[in-house]
Fold these 3 entries.
Entry 1:
Amino acid sequence: MKREFFALAVTFLLFVAFPAALFGYQAIRTNTSGARVIDLIAYAPANGGWKPDSIRVNIGERVRLRIAAPDVVHGFEIPALGITIDEILPGHTEEIEFVATRAGRFPFACTRWCSADHWRMRGVIEVIDPANPNPPRATFAPPLYQQLKIDLDAMHVAQNLPAQKPSAARGAAINLALDPRTQSPSEAFARLRANTPLTDAQLWDAIAFAWKQSAGAEQIARGQKLYARDCAACHGEQGRGDGTAGINLPGMAMMHREMNRGPADFTNAVQMFGASDAILHGKILRGGMGTGMPEWGSLYTDEEIWNMVSYIRSFAFDYR
Ligand code: HEC
Ligand SMILES: [Cu+2]
């Protein structure tokens, strides 16, 4: 009985008294700048996620977001509007003011690994143009994997494998112009093998260089940043698929029986050299449909997803 009361008291404190006190205190402390104040509470997904998880503002309206984190450390980001709060400590509130200048539905998300299913912590901000409150829905070009009619759930296994890790530095002398988006490294190897004076090892090095070149150093660096933030927890710092958040994911039983169970190992040449960039891009965009691989298409721009694909390539190729 005592214990139940205690649990109830804790729940009350966490969900009612605490946020109320936080916002109350903030309301006294902050002077009004004419901005509309919107209160947002960041709970880890197990505690309910964003409260509320959808907000509406008007174009041109000055808005102050006041975000409280009652349970654990969270972060906040609206990527499409360039709004970021790096850290909201438990028991604190953070504020940010902005004026949205374009209409649309934009996802917002937590940016800290607050819990195992942290990546579920997403919401939507709707920016409305009062002069045109019901715009026709924008039409987007379908992603490359759909244009190429690629079945994302089919296995992609390399038919050709290098004897050692292909090195972009060694391959720099040989300049192959390749399109990494539509072919896998294994396919590129097979096609070029027929009429080249290069040895197998030289050809693989040249392919590594061609992939690195077509991506670009800046793009790879941007991909690395995003990877460290949102992917390493499952796929591992070194891309080996051994991140702690990837252990015992629900949905592993749905994975293709020939696939390794768990987050993809980006150092695994059999899988990585069997995949075109379009496949990797598609998987990040769409997610794994219940395998535990989240969908990122609503959060990241197309460009950012390509950047992550480029970075992921550095685990099976040697890009130093
Ligand atoms: C919650 C754990 C988790 C997170 C976080 C995660 N992944 Fe995955 N990912 C998986 C699992 C599990 C698989 C394998 C199942 C599948 O392919 O559907 C996978 C598969 C993939 C694949 C397919 C590889 C292949 O060979 O087909 C790519 C690419 C990928 N992830 C990229 C990313 C990127 C980029 C991020 C960060 C934006 C990310 N993942 C975040 C769990 C995760
Ligand atoms: Cu989080």
Entry 2:
Amino acid sequence: MTKPLLIAIIGGGASGMMAAIVAARAGAQVTLLERQERVGKKLLATGNGRCNLSNIDCSIKNYHGADPAFADATLRRFPVKKTLDFFNALGLCTVVEEAGRIFPLTGQASAVLDILRYEMTRCKVLIKVETPVVNIVRRNNRFDVHLSTGALSADRVIVAGGGAAAPHLGGSGSAMALLEKLGHTLTPVFPALVPLKTTGHCTRRIKGLKVNATVRLKCGGEKSGEEKGELLFTDYGLSGPPIIQLSQSAGRALQAHWPACFTVDLFPDWSDAQLAAELDKRIISRPEAPLDFILVGLVHKRLVPVILHQAGIEDLRQAAASATKVQIKNIIQCLKQWVFEICGSLSWNDAQAMAGGALTSEFSSASMESFLVKGLFAAGEVLDITGDCGGYNLQWAWSSGFAAGLAAAGK
Ligand SMILES: Cc1cc2nc3c(=O)[nH]c(=O)nc-3n(C[C@H](O)[C@H](O)[C@H](O)COP(=O)(O)OP(=O)(O)OC[C@H]3O[C@@H](n4cnc5c(N)ncnc54)[C@H](O)[C@@H]3O)c2cc1C
């Protein structure tokens, strides 16, 4: 009887657990090495504790990196349907919500983790927690996996240690460093799916205020994206779902030192002409009222002085009838095209993902095996593939973990 392959997996996150199950089911003897006190800590925090585990509309257009097309073959091999079949077979019922987002029916991320842990135990995966991997050395066609206490020997290694986002949940650059020491190239990394800082101080005055808006992103003068949703003003700039979604493109522009700005439309369902007619009507019916009062009932009260200030109006109490054509035009411009220059992002602590990572052209998209080091595989966020917000990053973790686990086990 041939001896089973010994596979060491570095990282007990989404991709590492998927790889562990698939490799163990294929007959390998798997050891999962996790530096934190438990596996799946980040998974528990996903989707605000509800785990947005995939998206029914997942396609390659939702992925970014130096070569996003790399993800195509991997996602096709283990697509959303197969992912849901995998989880359903383990007992997880799921539900599709707004914008195609898939969640566990129970609304609990812990359900996803519980069934993965149960299956790993059933498949006899050896799980070692509080076990950081500090180095990997290729020797005599095998690997020495160095831990802070001793080493273990493996036939194959899968690096599934994730990225630097959310250090409190295990994020670090350590998995990238392991790959770099083995000769792999890293692309520049930066926080993604993160709130953004804007210049000027106007958002400070309205921090905490949420409004429905359409947000358009311009990078280097070109339109780079548009999102509709609840915008949140903060003391440092802007947040909320549309900003988080656009933050990856904005981050890439900032990395390239391109100017980037948001144009916010607070009245996406109104044309400029409709808004002008509404303001006219209000001024005609109450010509003596102060200009700031004219906007009450149309615009959130906290926004009114900020909008008028942005429109260059100093005397907010001037009679509405005295407003000039230029002032009215400026108000409409602010309501429909309020410009915010982007000057940075919040830190890794506030990011949901890492953009950048190990260069994908050095790996096979079919097997996730390294072209540089035979028997070395990588999966998940450590690779330079980042999904949009909406379940796409976990889908990448499942699909790439599946491919790496199967190939490492020799299937
Ligand atoms: C707050 C938050 C909410 C999110 N919500 C969603 C969501 O709803 N849907 C979605 O699709 N995505 C979401 N994401 C992103 C998603 O969680 C990640 O993309 C995904 O977990 C990446 O999986 P991974 O296996 O590559 O890495 P991780 O899940 O980060 O796992 C990597 C593991 O490796 C361990 N590790 C690292 N280095 C070493 C080492 N040297 N030795 C041993 N162990 C090591 C880490 O401790 C960690 O446990 C969210 C992220 C955050 C931070």
Entry 3:
Amino acid sequence: MKEVIFVSVVLLVLFVLTAIRYRKQIMALLNVWRMLRSMRQMNPTRNSQINGGTKPAGPLVNCGKCGTWVPDIQSIKIGRASYCSAECVEKSAQAA
Ligand SMILES: [Zn+2]
């Protein structure tokens, strides 16, 4: 029975010495593992944002004032002209 305890103690000392010798590598490995785990936790929400959050915006239209390309559904249409924002509509009205 004493032999078993002696062998366990020797193995424990060897394990501790190895851990001390390679502690930097072990810490790096733990960091990589934590990073992978956090990435895996973040991925479902990110995927749902990509798949469900952004819808195809449809055709783009050119703002009649500043020239910015905006999705057709987000643009403000006045007559034939399209504008990216109310600000551009105001500027255009002031200029005219
Ligand atoms: Zn504009």
